[in-house]
User: What shape does this take?
Amino acid sequence: MKYLHAMVRVRDLDASLRFFADGLGLRETRRKDVPQGRFTLVYLGAPENPEAEVELTWNYDDEDYGSARNFGHLAFAVDDIYALCAHLQGMGVTINRPPRDGHMAFVRSPDGISIELLQKGGPLPPAEPWASMANTGSW
Assistant: This one.
């Protein structure tokens, strides 16, 4: 058996690609447009293991997918959790669980999909502005 991908339905393909590609740094590995079925599939992979893909399914007809909490989350190991969170925040992404411990953070895609970011190796030393969030309890 071989793991292939996790599929998530998205409502705005351009916004989702901006988040996953421009924000997280995933790369599009392939795309399949199926106009007769009224959907497009876009596969993205992380640079270090592109074969483990995230499939974005965009249905042409508007549909309410709910809160997406039943999906769980996608997880990515990152080189510098502080830098990535600052980058995402600069793009207007809300950091739902800041990396105040230098190890873990959670953000949400434009479709409300929970994304866990984990620092490669051990946690980074506490750094501002993230470290002060541990004392305030805000997140």
